From TrEMBL:
It comes from Candidatus Nitronauta litoralis. Keywords: Methyltransferase, Transferase. It comes from the Bacteria. This is Class I SAM-dependent methyltransferase. The keyword Transferase applies. One of its GO terms (biological process) is methylation.
Amino acid sequence: MKKKFYKSVIERLLLESKVDVSMSTLVICGDEFDKAVFKDLGFSNVTISNLDQRNTPDYYSPYKWMLEDAENLSFPDNEFDLVVVHAGLHHCRSPHKALLEMYRVARKTVLVFETRDNFLVRLGNKVGLVSDYEVEAVVGNNNQSGGVRNTEIPNFIYRFREREVFKTIQSFAPEFKHEIKYFYGLNMPLERLRVHKNKALVCCAFLSYPFVKLLTWLFPKQSNLFSFSISKPDKAKDHWPWISLNAGSPTLNVGWCENRFLTENMEKQ
């Protein structure tokens, strides 16, 4: 289901001409899963990056691999048309810092897939179906990796909400307006639950699936799959009215401010 959701979001952006298969694309915190999705969709110019030092430059052939820290990318500003992460920000010590690094090196679009923080997910956590720490990922990597910053320490699973995405981006680039789109999907981890020791709880989870599916259809924001795309602004037209461009750089539009505020009275205060 995760792969289907991943592909469906990118296909929608392709239809809306927000992305193109020829775009230079950077995937952070990437792996074989990302490679399979972009290969299926026909992307040709993809760089997959992560912190796994065992990899070689052709490990994800036909795509390129690079050793990159998501929280401190080595690339200059606006280096890639599209920057993508799938279920990787919650492995960072600062998910917001990694998101802003994605924004910095993207020229056109940022695309993120993470879990949404909502009532159903928190309820699943209360009854033991959902965890706040990714211990399973570390165990599945022979207790050596898969945790925070790909170490053996299980990471806290940071879950996002729409408003905090907006606030994070607007705080970083307050000069401009941003188009942010949100997407929702449901993934019931039924196969993973089969190894759960509490069989009564697992049975309840299977029986509740039709109800959860109906509920998330009626209220999409209660879904656990969450994605958002951020379109980088056109500086010439997407800046706020109190901003002017001077040789391409944003500055305060003093004339706009003087027409709306009593400067003398504000100085006295």
